Amino acid sequence: MRHMLAAALMMAASLAHAQGSPSAPGPSKVQPGCYHVNEKMEREVGYCQAVRSGNMLYISGHTASGEMGGAVKTVYTRLGRILAAHGLTFKDVVKENVFTTDMDALVKAASVRLPFYDNHYPAASWIGVQRLFMPELVIEVELVAAFPEGK
Fold it and tell me: Which residues form the signal peptide (predicted)?
């Protein structure tokens, strides 16, 4: 039951982020290396939108619902904001995990994703799942990025 509650709160945090959050994005005031989009809610749930460890940045999964092309654009736009807040771009992404409830639609919408990477593609896994936390969600993407030396 605790896991279901935690998952529900994480989804609420993700959706709040999608709709704009009441607190400004930025580094955690409490946990070094932790980046929040909505610190109050994320602290209540117990996670960070991104965590820096050494020269690596781990970005939590971002979700979207609706038509797959629009959902892909929404998710990658949000992820781009988090990368930019750390002085990174999609060229710095080394690993991408994509979870989808409709692999055929994702494959058809793949061209929406390509411009974000500008021909600098990461290692990637695309995984078809029966459903994501909320039934209307069609995609979830998490990233790992590497900071260039000296950053």
Answer: 1-18
Contact (CB, 8 A) for 118 and 91: yes
Tokens of 17: 């982020």
Q: Where are the beta strands (DSSP E) in the chain?
A: 26-27, 34-36, 50-53, 56-65, 93-100, 123-128, 137-146
- Please name each of the domains of the chain with its CATH number: 2-146 (3.30.1330.40)
17/34 Cα distance (integer angstroms): 16
In one-letter notation, the amino acid at residue 26 is G
- Residue 62's nearest CA partner among 104, 91, 107, 25 is 25
Mean pLDDT by 10 residues, the chain (151 residues): 43 44 47 78 84 94 96 98 96 99 98 97 98 94 94 71
